[in-house]
Amino acid sequence: MRKLFGTDGVRGTANQEPMTAETALKIGMAAGRQFLRGDHRHRAIIGKDTRLSGYLLEPALTAGFISMGMDVILVGPMPTPAIAMLTRSLRADIGVMISASHNPYQDNGIKLFGPDGRKLSDKIEAEIERRIDNGAKEDLVPSDGLGRAMRLEDALGRYMEHVKTTFPRGLTLDGLRIVVDCANGAAYKVAPTVLWELGAEVIPIGVAPDGTNINRDCGSTEPAVMCEAVRAHGAHLGIALDGDADRMVLADGTGALVDGDQVMALIARSWQERGRLRGDGIVATVMSNLGLERYLQKHELSLARVQVGDRYVVEHMHMHGYNVGGEQSGHIIFGDFGTTGDGLIAALQVLAEIVRAKRATSEVVHCFDPLPQLLRSVRFDEPASLETADVQHAIAQGEAILGEDGRLLIRKSGTEPLIRIMAEGKDEALIGRVVADIATAIAGKSK
Predict the structure, then answer these.
(1) Displacement of CA 80 from its chain's centroid (Å)
(2) Measuring CA to CA, which residue among 346, 344, 342, 322 is closest to residue 83?
(3) Is-contact 280 317, C-beta < 8 A?
(4) May I ask the CATH architecture of the domain 260-342?
(5) CATH: 3.40.50.720, 3.40.120.10, 3.40.50.450, 3.30.720.10. Which one for 10-153?
(6) Cα first-last separation, the chain
(7) Which of 439, 367, 444, 391 is nearest to 431 (CA)?
(8) 412 CB-contact burial (10 Å; exposed 0-12 / middle 13-18 / buried 19+)
(9) Is the dihedral of CA 6, 8, 12, 14 positive or negative?
(10) CATH of domain 158-256
(11) What is the CA radius of gyration of the chain?
(12) What strands, in cross-sheet order, belong to the sheet with 43-48?
């Protein structure tokens, strides 16, 4: 069992356990030792988003890797998918992204990538935790074996060129006006530049990070600002990234939101027609709407569901030969282009479909009518509150009320002390009542 790692690395409040310099040092040492795999000169790549606490964690991780004999390549503020790409491109042994994604600036996190550019498996994370628990002093290299640290100055350019290669040759964004909200996060330089270089007129927002404004009233978790900017500027599309740019949500030309389910439906159908889709379907999580599943079935495509977390989507894609997958929240993975969710690449694939279609954006990006779905989060102090008789009774009642035409999902968040309640069905009022009853039962047991 993992205690330190959640569904997306290690995460917590900065300068409090586990997000302290001391624990970051231990993670660097343990992960460094885990990936020593031969006599070659070992390399670790470290990137970060724009949080103030990145200055705290980056040098601690660096020291941990150096103490194990690893050289460290520092790339500064970069999107998470850029770290995955650079880990493979530079033939590094491990990649590290310091970010808490969509969380507020007070939080931070550490995401680890193996030499293949994929997030680590549960098994490897458990092994790293075991090394931390056991201590690593006996693994320290002698003074003449210490690693070195260097800064890679052209890392942004390398990633931008990679992103642009995913946009089809022969197409341009000429004539398109695009709002891009970078959440004052890791893509604040990259995203507007890539869109402009491909020909778009770009209206950038959320591009003035100060260390404390990441995700604040902007980005994919607060998309109202992006939607309003689309309407105000008469834009064809809006793109809202999260703090580390591994996910995005869109707004069509009317300012209406477009989530990851619609994006996956659009790409799956288009790639099917072009003979590009592998696996005869896509991979999504248990959170994706039933409307997506029925849309795919209508086109003789399958939907494989996995537990929440983009790394579980990637694992299933890799094991079963799919090349498209993702999450309703906007993590979209294209196996042809990368090993993890990439908000900017996902947006470019949608833009390619818009350019090809030569129709209104709203007509292109809305593929199906989703069933009413409600998601609510309840903070808990005692995780066992899900197992009490009152909570189990409320869940059983909810399942009976929704019947075969609906779904109910209750799960613990892997990144925050929250229990997520999701219900969907034909009757919006009914699912609202089901969710409220279960939330009340959970909240009553968490006091």
Answers:
(1) 8
(2) 342
(3) no
(4) 3-Layer(aba) Sandwich (3.40)
(5) 3.40.120.10
(6) 27
(7) 439
(8) middle
(9) positive
(10) 3.40.120.10
(11) 22
(12) 10-13, 107-113, 94-98, 43-48, 71-77, 149-151
Q: What pTM was estimated for this model as a whole?
A: 0.90
Fold exhibited by the domain 373-445? TATA-Binding Protein (3.30.310)
The one catalytic residue among 53, 99, 101, 270: 101
220 a catalytic residue: no
pLDDT tens for each residue of the chain, 447 residues long: 678 998 889 999 999 999 999 999 999 999 999 999 888 999 999 999 999 999 999 999 999 999 999 999 999 999 999 999 999 999 999 999 999 999 999 999 999 999 999 999 999 999 999 999 998 777 899 999 999 999 999 999 999 999 999 999 999 999 999 999 999 999 999 999 999 999 999 999 999 999 999 999 999 999 999 999 999 999 999 999 999 999 999 999 999 999 999 999 999 999 999 999 999 999 999 999 999 999 999 999 999 999 988 989 999 999 999 999 999 999 999 999 999 999 999 999 999 999 999 999 999 999 999 999 998 988 876 655 677 888 899 999 999 998 888 899 998 876 677 888 999 998 999 999 999 999 998 887 554
Instruction: State both tokens at 103.
Output: 């969380």
| Amino acid identity, position 75 | V
Could you tell me the residue ranges of all domains in the chain? 10-153, 158-256, 260-342, 373-445
Sign for the CA dihedral angle at 357, 362, 365, 366 comes to negative
Domains 10-153 and 373-445 share a fold: no
Measure Cα distances from 372 to 145, 381, 424, 426, 432 in Å: 59, 30, 6, 6, 10
Closest CA relative to residue 250, chosen from 226, 284, 285: 226
